[in-house]
Design a protein that fits this description.
Blueprint lengths: L7 H6 L1 E2 L5 E3 L13 H8 L2 E2 L5 H7 L4
Antiparallel strand pairs: 1-2, 2-3
Length: 65
């Protein structure tokens, strides 16, 4: 059986937590920040978790995580 390749784009975006779920970065924090409130930008800084329906797809892209 050959080795499986890791999707490098996914490896840069998702990290596996100790409980087995995956964390990622929130979107909407790259540009057009003047119209967004300070509290909204602050909450976007915290890590987000992947939805349960998307976990199998991320697991397939990161076989050795």
């Amino acid at each position: 059986m050959p080795k499986l390749k890791t999707n490098r784009g996914a490896a840069k975006r998702f990290k596996k937590t100790a409980s087995g779920s995956y964390k990622c970065k929130h979107s909407h924090l790259n540009h057009i920040l003047t119209k967004k409130s300070t509290s909204r930008k602050r909450t976007l800084r915290s890590p987000d978790t992947i939805e349960k329906a998307d976990v199998p797809m991320v697991k397939k892209m990161l076989p050795y995580s």
